[in-house]
Sequence to fold (123 residues):
Amino acid sequence: MTTFACGGPGKRKAVLPNLIQERQMSLKETKDAYIGKLKLQLDQWSADIDAMEARARQADADLKGAYQDKLEELRYQKTLAHGRIIELQNAADDAWEEISRGSESIWETVKKTFADARAKFDR
Fold:
């Protein structure tokens, strides 16, 4: 590993390894915070699904089928989102930023699906 040093004779300090270590810790903290935020959203979606399932059970027979179809779609979307979280957790540092950017569009699609479902169940 190449190191750059500073200080006078006898006072050399390895600067670059420390900077690299700080950057990695910062990236790890960023990853952990981002993934934590996504997990909280996933937990909220699970609670939303539970609430919608309760409503579907009490719905008229003619609406139950539509509600069940929507719930199936929500479960599928939630599974995709969970898979993306796992992918982000396992991503190497150099690939993480690209994967997280790609996750944004998937996450927005899932958010929209849940918002649409909430609107349908609230009618």
